[in-house]
């Protein structure tokens, strides 16, 4: 491709390319060959009650296509959601990489991002405890670059040869195909207790990181150490970090299970709806850069995918931003058929000898050949690069190109030597490094420390995060039937933190370890979710109303939330309208019975004497409040609405009393009786921006 062609590429180029493949549902119904059809409800038959005739080509075509609609789902990352957008670098990175899209701040590079769960099938729920995939395809002017990562910066295993074993262990057990999309069963934990290298990753998976509130509030990591290469052929080790603008936030375990029943598409819907209403998700891309000369200066191996590079040792440098601003037109054609591959790189980005990365570079391509029906899957619209493609590959299943000319080989003289080899300034050049050694099956001793960073992670967490990890281990291991598997995991946990191991052991009915392994005491605060600032932008607030509601309070609250980009859903006892305290009608957004407390970030109860009486006698409304309190969510009540909180089975709280004219806050419950509604709204918004009230005491709240 010429320099002029490369420099003229725009963010809209991928959209223009896709436009040629879009088909709108308009005009007369036809067969796949264009023949118009006037009846698609009745097969051609011999009389009204006779047999169907084989000459009915429309019937045969319609059924044949239907019978072949499904393709094999991904073995892992089967359930996903995706969106289009763009990436834009802040400043040129020519010192480190020659990649064009990382050196032109004026260029908006089109992207497609696919988020996913790992273990479950396409039909599983969004909110299971699992790693989340975070895969980004950059449609760059030098070819497609795929950054295929997760929302957790480390992985379960060090060498890709173990990947089939790990996946087999976490998938439903083969004798009964149970459980779906869950790690709480014997085979996974049997694998873990026999593979200590899994312990760092299991600490992350048992943390709240495995329960993201939203794809839009989820970090992403490249996991591996990659390599930047500049125009002089000089290499720099690099780790990639995506940081969400909305902050990194999670659900709580009880909440995720209930959401799985109320709305199994919770995360999919959240991403789709946010983009549709113009609240575009945004992430900042950061890098950790390590000179080649510093490769061995750490107390772990930089090529070990079960280790992080602590930000205290190498800070993350922001280099650009990504915005997702368009939903796909068709889930199957785009989100399902997109094919990622860790080996899709462009000049200036290269690999390292990370053994897991090396395996992925084989596995991803091999997977697409069967899943997408042959070697031409890159020609599917969502996979097709915006860069010109000139190669000598021909034929095969799914060939969309109509190649002209008589040559399909190199070198040739019949086509003027085309396609010819690229020049030094445009071709991909593999990083040159000396590689030698004996052919052996042995992992480096530098990969053998499996506990230090697991302890580092645990030490870095807030008290509430540690409590959630202990509870998660107890839940998961409580599902394990074999006692020796439980004991084996506890023995590993004792190498992470003795108190954690004892707590888990007592919870699952095995003997706690007597000898404590010393905790090194080091921490890395950057891994804790307690350190991330928050915003109320795009948060969902449920406002509970009934007949007699004081509508002015609802309107003022909705306006205040809208100013900060938050959304208020007014929930009534029925669809339609409720009567206000002045006798007029007020429209509700949804009937309370059609949604649930777990689908919202906070609850508000406005005033109105009749409103309070009705809600106080409504078990569903009281359950909304009780569940929200249990799940650490902000709750606010105004004037008579405070009386409703008093009827809910909550612990003793300092609520505003009759005659008070000020805002009271206790454990994230904000109340006011009097004229300071503005103060209540402000306090509520500030509390909502913290995401959850994690220090709230919930022991006395009924399950």
UniProtKB/TrEMBL annotation:
<dbReference type="InterPro" id="IPR024708">
    <property type="entry name" value="Catalase_AS"/>
</dbReference>
<feature type="binding site">
    <location>
        <position position="114"/>
    </location>
    <ligand>
        <name>heme</name>
    </ligand>
</feature>
<protein>
    <recommendedName>
        <fullName>Catalase</fullName>
        <ecNumber>1.11.1.6</ecNumber>
    </recommendedName>
</protein>
<dbReference type="InterPro" id="IPR011614">
    <property type="entry name" value="Catalase_core"/>
</dbReference>
<dbReference type="Pfam" id="PF00199">
    <property type="entry name" value="Catalase"/>
</dbReference>
<keyword id="KW-0376">Hydrogen peroxide</keyword>
<keyword id="KW-0408">Iron</keyword>
<dbReference type="Pfam" id="PF06628">
    <property type="entry name" value="Catalase-rel"/>
</dbReference>
<dbReference type="GO" id="GO:0046872">
    <property type="term" value="F:metal ion binding"/>
</dbReference>
<feature type="binding site">
    <location>
        <position position="163"/>
    </location>
    <ligand>
        <name>heme</name>
    </ligand>
</feature>
<keyword id="KW-0575">Peroxidase</keyword>
<feature type="cross-link" description="3'-histidyl-3-tyrosine (His-Tyr)">
    <location>
        <begin position="341"/>
        <end position="364"/>
    </location>
</feature>
<dbReference type="GO" id="GO:0020037">
    <property type="term" value="F:heme binding"/>
</dbReference>
<feature type="domain" description="Catalase core">
    <location>
        <begin position="30"/>
        <end position="418"/>
    </location>
</feature>
<dbReference type="GO" id="GO:0006979">
    <property type="term" value="P:response to oxidative stress"/>
</dbReference>
<keyword id="KW-0560">Oxidoreductase</keyword>
<dbReference type="InterPro" id="IPR024712">
    <property type="entry name" value="Catalase_clade2"/>
</dbReference>
<feature type="region of interest" description="Disordered">
    <location>
        <begin position="1"/>
        <end position="50"/>
    </location>
</feature>
<keyword id="KW-0349">Heme</keyword>
<dbReference type="GO" id="GO:0004096">
    <property type="term" value="F:catalase activity"/>
</dbReference>
<dbReference type="InterPro" id="IPR029062">
    <property type="entry name" value="Class_I_gatase-like"/>
</dbReference>
<feature type="binding site">
    <location>
        <position position="360"/>
    </location>
    <ligand>
        <name>heme</name>
    </ligand>
</feature>
<dbReference type="InterPro" id="IPR020835">
    <property type="entry name" value="Catalase_sf"/>
</dbReference>
<dbReference type="InterPro" id="IPR018028">
    <property type="entry name" value="Catalase"/>
</dbReference>
<feature type="compositionally biased region" description="Basic and acidic residues">
    <location>
        <begin position="1"/>
        <end position="25"/>
    </location>
</feature>
<dbReference type="InterPro" id="IPR043156">
    <property type="entry name" value="Catalase_clade2_helical"/>
</dbReference>
<dbReference type="Pfam" id="PF18011">
    <property type="entry name" value="Catalase_C"/>
</dbReference>
<feature type="binding site" description="axial binding residue">
    <location>
        <position position="364"/>
    </location>
    <ligand>
        <name>heme</name>
    </ligand>
</feature>
<dbReference type="InterPro" id="IPR010582">
    <property type="entry name" value="Catalase_immune_responsive"/>
</dbReference>
<feature type="active site">
    <location>
        <position position="150"/>
    </location>
</feature>
<feature type="binding site">
    <location>
        <position position="74"/>
    </location>
    <ligand>
        <name>heme</name>
    </ligand>
</feature>
<feature type="active site">
    <location>
        <position position="77"/>
    </location>
</feature>
<keyword id="KW-0479">Metal-binding</keyword>
<dbReference type="GO" id="GO:0042744">
    <property type="term" value="P:hydrogen peroxide catabolic process"/>
</dbReference>
<dbReference type="InterPro" id="IPR041399">
    <property type="entry name" value="Catalase_large_C"/>
</dbReference>
<comment type="similarity">
    <text>Belongs to the catalase family. HPII subfamily.</text>
</comment>
<comment type="function">
    <text>Decomposes hydrogen peroxide into water and oxygen; serves to protect cells from the toxic effects of hydrogen peroxide.</text>
</comment>
<dbReference type="InterPro" id="IPR002226">
    <property type="entry name" value="Catalase_haem_BS"/>
</dbReference>
<dbReference type="GO" id="GO:0005829">
    <property type="term" value="C:cytosol"/>
</dbReference>
<feature type="binding site">
    <location>
        <position position="371"/>
    </location>
    <ligand>
        <name>heme</name>
    </ligand>
</feature>
């Amino acid at each position: 491709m010429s320099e002029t062609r490369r420099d003229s590429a725009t963010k809209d180029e991928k959209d223009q390319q896709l436009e040629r493949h879009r088909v709108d549902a308009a005009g007369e119904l036809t067969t796949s060959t264009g023949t118009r059809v006037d009846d698609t409800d009745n097969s051609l038959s011999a009389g009204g009650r006779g047999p169907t005739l084989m000459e009915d080509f429309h019937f045969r075509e319609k059924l044949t296509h239907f019978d072949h609609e499904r393709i094999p789902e991904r073995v892992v990352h089967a359930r996903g959601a995706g969106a289009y957008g763009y990436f834009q670098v802040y400043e040129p990175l020519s010192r480190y990489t020659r990649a064009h899209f990382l050196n032109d701040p004026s260029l908006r590079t089109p992207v497609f991002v696919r988020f996913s769960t790992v273990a479950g099938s396409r039909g599983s729920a969004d909110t299971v405890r699992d790693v989340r995939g975070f895969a980004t395809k950059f449609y760059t002017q030098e070819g497609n670059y795929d950054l295929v990562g997760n929302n957790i910066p480390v992985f379960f295993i060090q060498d890709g040869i173990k990947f089939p074993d790990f996946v087999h262990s976490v998938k439903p057990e083969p004798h009964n195909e149970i459980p779906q999309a869950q790690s709480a069963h014997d085979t996974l934990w049997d694998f873990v207790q026999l593979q200590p290298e899994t312990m760092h990753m299991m600490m992350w998976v048992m943390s709240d990181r495995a329960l993201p509130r939203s794809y839009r509030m989820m970090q992403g990591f490249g996991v591996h150490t990659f390599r930047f290469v500049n125009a002089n052929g000089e290499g720099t080790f690099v780790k990639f970090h995506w940081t969400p603008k909305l902050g990194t936030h999670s659900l709580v375990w009880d909440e995720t299970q209930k959401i799985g029943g109320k709305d199994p598409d919770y995360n999919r819907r959240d991403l789709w709806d946010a983009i549709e209403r113009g609240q575009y998700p945004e992430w900042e891309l950061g890098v950790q850069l390590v000179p080649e000369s510093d490769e061995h200066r750490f107390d772990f191996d930089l090529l070990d995918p079960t280790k992080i590079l602590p930000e205290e040792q190498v800070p993350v440098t922001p280099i650009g931003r990504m915005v997702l601003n368009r939903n796909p037109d068709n889930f199957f054609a785009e989100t399902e058929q997109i094919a990622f591959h860790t080996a899709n790189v462009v000049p200036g980005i290269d690999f390292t000898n990370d053994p897991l990365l090396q395996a992925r570079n084989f596995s991803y391509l091999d997977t697409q050949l069967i899943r997408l029906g042959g070697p031409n899957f890159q020609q599917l619209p969502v996979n097709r690069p915006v860069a010109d493609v000139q190669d000598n590959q021909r034929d095969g299943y799914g060939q969309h190109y109509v190649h002209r000319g008589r040559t399909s080989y190199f070198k040739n003289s019949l086509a003027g030597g085309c396609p010819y080899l690229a020049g030094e300034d445009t071709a991909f050049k593999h990083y040159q490094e000396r590689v030698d050694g004996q052919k052996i099956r042995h992992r480096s001793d530098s990969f053998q420390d499996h506990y230090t960073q697991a302890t580092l992670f645990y030490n870095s967490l807030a008290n509430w995060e540690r409590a959630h990890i202990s509870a998660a281990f107890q839940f998961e291991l409580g599902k394990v039937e074999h006692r020796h598997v439980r004991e084996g995991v506890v023995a590993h946990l004792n190498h992470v933190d003795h108190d954690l191991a004892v707590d888990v052991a007592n919870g699952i009915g095995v003997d706690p370890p007597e000898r404590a392994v010393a905790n090194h005491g080091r921490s890395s605060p950057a891994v804790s979710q307690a350190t991330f600032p928050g915003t109320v932008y795009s948060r969902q607030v449920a406002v509970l109303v009934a007949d007699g509601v004081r509508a002015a309070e609802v309107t003022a609250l909705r306006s205040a939330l809208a100013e900060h980009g938050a959304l208020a859903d007014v929930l009534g006892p029925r669809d339609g309208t409720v009567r206000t305290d002045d006798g007029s009608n007020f429209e509700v957004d949804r009937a309370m019975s059609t949604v649930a407390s777990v689908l919202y970030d906070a609850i508000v109860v406005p005033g109105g004497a009749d409103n309070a009486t009705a809600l106080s006698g409504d078990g569903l409304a009281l359950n909304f409040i009780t569940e929200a309190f249990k799940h650490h969510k902000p709750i606010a009540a105004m004037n008579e609405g405070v009386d409703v909180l008093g009827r809910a089975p909550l612990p003793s709280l300092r609520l505003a009393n009759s005659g008070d004219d000020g805002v009271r806050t206790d454990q994230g419950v904000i109340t006011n009786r009097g004229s300071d509604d503005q103060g209540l709204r402000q306090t509520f918004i500030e509390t909502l921006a913290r995401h959850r009230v994690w220090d709230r005491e919930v022991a006395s709240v009924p399950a």
